[in-house]
Amino acid sequence: MATQLLTNGSPLYTTKDSFSGEDGAIPVLDYSKLVSSDPSLRSLAVHDMGRACIDYGCFIVTNHAIPDTVIKRPIDKLFEFFDLPEDEKRKYDHKDPTDLIRWGKGNLNHVSREFVKMAVHPTFHCASSPPGFSEILQEYTHKVRELGIELLGGISTALGLERDYIEKKMNLKSGYDFFTANDYPSRQHSENRIGQFAHIDPSLIILIIQNVSGGLQVEHNGKWLNVNLKPDWIFVNVADHLEYKSALHRVVVNNEVRRATLPLFLGPSLDTVVSPAPEFTDNGRSPAYLGITYKQYLEYNNFHVIDGKSCLNQIRL
Ligand SMILES: O=C(O)CCC(=O)C(=O)O
Ligand SMILES: [Fe+2]
Predict the structure, then answer these.
(1) Domain formed by 20-270, architecture
(2) Pocket test for ligand 1, best of 179, 197, 208 (most atoms within 8 A of CB)
(3) Residue 168: CA atoms inside 13 Å, Cβ hemisphere, count?
(4) What is the CA(251)–ligand 1 centre distance, in A?
(5) Residues 6+ apart with CB under 8 A from 217
(6) What's the rounded Cα separation, in Å, for the pair 233 and 229?
(7) 24, 67, 118, 206 — which has fewest CB within 10 A?
């Protein structure tokens, strides 16, 4: 299979590639410790989170306070959305990356994936069907956003900055957040093995829930690790706009059953100029990146990733 041709010679896929990942230990963060009233538990959690960001660029959150139903309901609604007649979904089949709701279906170049992107903050947009989708997604957005901001507070602290440093500098009150919900067929019903090519994401962090484990893999020290999650666990990916270590990841179509995922991309406000923080460029260390607004970045990026390449290369100095 000439997969190299597809990725234009990128070494990310070769004909020798194995799609089976290894079961490695992705760091797990006990969220209840991060928000504990005990300062020593809190600082341990912050330390562990900082290490996870540096070593893996991702971690799993357990013991958060989001109820199971608030996690399960949006996934059920997603299946209802993806099961709608194609004509109905086609009204969101826009080519313009700035559209606030965008549907698409990849069934070429070894990829099997259907997706819908919806911008949900500072203004909330959701497909009008199925009934109840909007209310359920809004409730979930509200809860997961709160969790994400709390995690960014922990990350700020781990960096030795004020707890609300990222929140303030990135103007998260008017932060631009969007979902890309994904629907991957089961292995038996797919000709293709790829759900998403290896890529790095824009935004600060991405919080992912899913109906079933299997398929998402993260690169760590040259190996692909399977991300195995219990149903109420949330997977957090560190993304380009933190550039702690943006986790390279991919999706393999590898499940016995159809799999839906709901990643929330938590970002700065669109007009925030993101550039290396002065705290990291003092003492003669020159900035490694050009400052650009989040909006410009997403536009360069066609609002997402381009076949495994990070847009960071375009602004590296
Ligand atoms: O569906 C997944 O498991 C990951 C999704 C992802 O990486 C993305 O949408 O950027
Ligand atoms: Fe991604």
Answers:
(1) Sandwich (2.60)
(2) 208
(3) 7
(4) 7
(5) 21, 224, 225, 226, 227, 249, 250, 251, 252
(6) 6
(7) 67
**110-153 per-position pLDDT tens digit:** 788 999 999 999 999 999 999 999 999 999 999 999 999 999 99
For residue 198, what are its two tokens?
A: 């290896």
Tokens of 39: 């300062």
**Protein residues within 5 Å, CB atom, of ion ligand 2:** 201
- Determine which of 78-87, 141-150, 199-208 has the lowest per-residue pLDDT on average: 199-208
Distance 199 CA to ligand 2 centre (A): 6
Q: 20-34, 94-108, 127-141, 188-202: lowest mean pLDDT where?
A: 94-108
| Spacing, Cα 156 to ligand 1 middle (Å) | 25
